[in-house]
Amino acid sequence: MARPKQRFQQLIEEIDRTPWGPAEQALVAEAVALAIELGDEQLEYEARMRQTASANMTGATDVMLNSFAWCLAHHDQDPQRFPADLDNGGADLMWQFKWMASSLRSSPAFSQEQIVAVLDDMESHYRAAGLGMSGVLTARFEDAWDAGRTEDAEQLRVQLEATPRDEHSHCDACGRSQFAGFFAETGRDEDAIRLVEEMIEGGFSCGEEPEHALSRVLVPYLRAGRGEEAKTAHLRSYRLAKDNPDNLRIVANNIVFAALTGNEARALALVERHIAWLAHDGLNVDAHFAALAAFAFALDRVTAAGHGDTPVRGAESSALEPFFGAHEGVWSAAELAAVAWSAAEHIGAEFDRRDGTEGHAQSLVRMRALADEHYDVPIRSDAFVATAPASTPTDADGWFDRVMELAQFGAEHEALEALPRALVVDDPTKRAQLLSMHLGILVALDRADEALALLPERVAALRAAGRVEQADLEERLGLATFGLNTPETTADLEDALAAASDLPAWSRGDLAISRAALHLQSDEADAALDLAEQAARAFAEAEDTRLSNTTTLIAIAAVLQKNDIEATSMILERFLAQDDLSIGHRAQALHTRARVRGGTNEFREGATDADETCRLLAGIGATKALASAHLLAGALWEDAGEPEKAVARYRVTARLTAQEGGDLAGANFRLARAMLAVGDAEEAAELFGSVLEQEEQAEVAAGSRAMTASMLARSLSAAGEHGQAFGAFGYAAGLYGEVEEHADQALSMSEQAKILAQFDEHDDALEMLETAAEVVRRAPDAVGAIAEVLHNLGQIYGGRQDERAFALFDEVTALATQHEAEWLLADVTDSRGRALAQVGRIDEAVSAVLTAADSFAGIGDSGSAGGSELFAARLLAGNERADDAVAVYRSALEHGAVHPPLRQVAALELGDTLEALGRHGEAAEVRALIES
User: Fold this and answer.
1) Which of 109, 260, 279, 896 allows an S-S link to 319, with CB 3.0 to 4.6 Å?
2) Residue from 408, 147, 768 nearest 156 by CA
3) Element housing 140 (H / E)
4) Is the peptide bond before 210 cis (omega within 30 degrees of 0)?
5) What is the Cα–Cα distance from 258 to 231, expressed in whole angstroms?
6) Contact indicator for 910, 875 with CB cutoff of 8 Å
C-alpha cells in the first residue's frame, strides 16, 4: 500500500484527469480528508482548491463556500505557502472569487450587505495583486442583473465591454452566453442570437457552455420565426445539460421551450425527470425559483391541452415537501401547477425584499405573459396516452362485462384491478364466473396460496347458482381446473376426465379445456388439440359461446405451437369472421394473427391487425396490455419499412410503460431507433443517451450497453455532433471488447477512423483502422465486418499510394466472390481502380473503374455506376485522352438521369471537354442540360 503522501499525490493526479461528477467528488473528499489526517495545511490547500472548483461544477454550494473561505484565509495569511495559482490548469483563487458573489446572490439567506462585502473584498484582492478589473466588473454586472437593477447592469455591461480583457475575464463562451441572456431578457433578441451563433461558429465551449447559451436563445429563435433552429438548439442544449443537477436553470429553459411549442407531453416528461433536482442544492434558491416558474408554466400548458388530471410522477417525494407542502397521493398536473406558481411567488418575494427591487416579480410577469405565445415545432419523443377506457362502467353488471373482456384477452393485471367493482354483482352465476376468473389469474401470477384461500368462496358461489355438480368437482380437484400445473393436478385431471361421462356437458368441457391448457404449457400440442376438440363439443352441447370461443383460441395456440402457419392462418380467418366474438377474444385473435403475419413477412397486414388490437384494448381499459400491443404494432410497421408509423406507436408504448411499469429502456430504444430511421437524429440521440444511462444504472450486460452506445454514436454523427459521436463509438468499442464481440468492436473503431479522416486527422485514422483490422480478424466468421474494415483500410492505403492496398482489395474481392456479394464486388473493384490511379497506373485504373461501373449498372445501381464512369472520364481527360473520355462522360450522363447532382457535374465536365476538342456545338447542347 502506498505511503500517505504518495497516496495523496496519486489522488491529486487522478482528480486532475477525472471529469466532474460523483467519482471526482469522492476523490476530492478523500484527498481533503487525507491531508487533514496528515496535518499538512499546504496539501490541504491543494486539495481544497480543487474542492472549490468541483463543488462549483456540481452544485454543492455549501461545500464551495466553506472550501473557498478556508483557502482565502490561508492565502491572505501566507501568500507564499498558499499561492493564488497552483499552476495545475484549474481556476486560481482570484478566479474562484467570481463564483462567491454569484453563490451568495443565489440565496435570500445572504443579505445585500454580505454580497456587497464580498464584491468589495474581491476588488481589493484584485487591486492588491495588480490584476485587471474585468473579472470584478463581470461579478458586479451579474449582481446588478440578478437583483433586477437593469439600468445599473446595462451601464456595467457597457463598461465591461470597454475594459481590456485579461486572464480573469470570462472565456469567449461564458462572456457571450452571459450577455446573450441579458439581451434576451431585455428585449434584444437579435443581439442575443448573434452572440450565441458567434459562439457556436467559433467552436467556443466551457463547463456549462454551449448548453446554457443555447437555452437562453430558444424563445428569441421562436419569436424570430426560426423554429427548426430553435428545435436543434433545444435538443443539443438539453442533451448536454440533462445529467448534471447544477444545470437546473438550463433544463428549466428547455422545459419552457417544450411547453411553448406544442410539446406538452415532452414538457411533462422533463418535469418528471428533473423535479427531484429541486432538492439537490439547498442554497441555489434562485435556480429553484427559475425551475418552479418553468414547471408551473409547463403544467399549465399540460392542463390546457386537456391533461390536467395526469399524475406528475416524483412530485410526491417527501424531499419536495418544502416546496409543495404535504399532499396525500400523487399530484395531478393541474394541482402541481398551482402550488408551483405559489412557491415561485414566495421565493421571488424573498429575493425582492432582500434586493429592494421587483426583479423576481417582473420575471414571473414575463413567464406568465408567455401564455399568449404558441409555436408549432413538433418533437416526437413523448406522447400523452388516454389511459382511461372509452366508457367507464356505471354499475356492477357493467364491471362484470369489463372484467370478462379483460380476462378473455389475457389482461390479468387490469382484470384484477377491476374485479372488486364487479364482485358486488347480485347475480350468483356472474359472481361464480368472476371468482373463476380471479382464481385463474392468481394461479397465472404464481399466487397459488391466495387462490387456494379463495377457492371455498368460488365453490359456495357455484352452489348458490345451482351448479352443484361443478361445485363438488372443484371442491374435490382444488386448483386443477384453474391452471395449477403440478404432477398431482395433472393426475387428478386425467382421473376426472376418465370418469366424466356422467357429468354435465359444461363440466366435461371445463375438465377438457383445463387439461388442454396444461398440455400446451408442456409443449404437447397434439394432445392439447385433441382435448380442445373434446372441450369444443362439450361447450357446444352446453350452449356456452364464450367458452367455445376460448377453446378455439387454445386450439389456435396448439396449431401454432406445431408451427403449422397455414392451418393457423385458416383457423384465425374463420374465427375472426364470426359475429359472436367478445372484444377480448377478437383482440386476442387479432394479436395472434398480427404475430403470425409478421413471421411470414406480411408486415403491413400484421401491423394493421396490431393497430386494431390497440383500438379494442383501449376501449376496455387494458393499459398494460395496450403497451405491449403498441410495441408489436411499432415493430411491424418498422419491419414494413414505415418508421414514421412505428414512431407513433412506440411513443405510446414508452408513455404507457412509464406509467404502468415495464421495460422502459427497451421501449425507448425502439423509439429512438425508429426516430433515427426517419431522420430525427437529435431526438434519437437524446433517447439513446437516456437508455444508456438507465442501462448503466441497472448494470445491464456490457454487450447490450455496447449496442446502445453504438446507436447513440450513429445518432450523434447524423446530428453533426462528431466529437461526441467519436467518444460514443470509442465507448462502444471498449464494451464490445469486454465481451469479445470483435466484429462489432472493429466496426465501431472503423467509424471512429471515418470521423478522424473527416477532420483531416489522417495519421490517427490510419492507426485506428490498422488496429481495427487486427481486431476483426479475431472473428473469422464475421465476413461482412471483415470485408468492411479491410476495404476501408485498403482505401486509406490507396489514397497514400501504399501498395498494401492491393492485397487487402484482393482479400475483399475473394470474400465478395465467395459469398456472391455483387455490390461489394463492384465497390471494391472501384476502390482498386482509384488506388491504381494514385500510383499512376492509368490504363489499369480506367479498366477497373469501368468494370465496376458495368457491375453497378448490372445490379441496378445507376448512381454508383455513373460515379465510377465520372472518375474514369476524368482520368482519361486528364491524361490526353479526351476523345475517349467523351463516350464515358455520355454514359455517366445517362446513368445520372435520376441523380440530378451527378448529371449536372457530368454535363458540365463533358461540355468543357468538348469545348477543348473544338466541338463547340456539342458543347452547347450538353451545357443546355445544366440549365434544364
Assistant:
1) 279
2) 147
3) helix 134-147
4) yes
5) 9
6) no
**Sign of the alpha-carbon dihedral angle for 852, 858, 864, 866:** positive
pLDDT tens-digit map of 764-788:
999 999 999 999 999 999 999 999 9
Rounded to 10°, the helix 412-422/623-639 angle is: 150
Rounded to whole angstroms, the Cα distance separating 682 from 718 reads 8
Which one, of 790, 784, 792, lies nearest residue 810 by Cα? 790
The three cell numbers locating residue 663: 421495460
Burial class (CB in 10 A: 0-12, 13-18, 19+), 211: buried
CB neighbours of residue 317 within 10 Å: 13
Q: Which DSSP helix (H) or strand (E) runs through 312?
A: strand 311-312
Instruction: Collapse the DSSP code of 281 into the 3-class scheme (helix H, G, I; strand E, B; otherwise coil) and give the result.
Output: coil
Largest distance between two CA atoms of the chain: 108
User: Are residues 789 and 773 in contact, defined by beta-carbon separation less than 8 angstroms?
Assistant: yes
Residues 6+ apart with CB under 8 A from 104: 65, 110, 114, 115, 118
Q: In whole angstroms, how large is the CA radius of gyration of the chain? A: 35
For residue 388, pLDDT beyond 60: no
Q: How far apart are CA 481 and CA 780, in angstroms?
A: 54
> Kind and range of the H or E element at 558?
helix 545-561
Q: Kindly report, residue by residue over 793-804, the tens digit of the pLDDT.
A: 999 999 999 999
The SS3 assignment for 402 reads helix
Q: Position 173: which residue type?
A: A
Query: What's at 780, amino acid-wise?
Result: P
What are the beta bridge partners of residue 206? Answer: 209
Give CA angle at 130 (124, 134), nearest 5°. 75
In the beta sheet, which residues pair with residue 312?
331
Please name the residue that has the C-alpha cell 484527469. Answer: 17
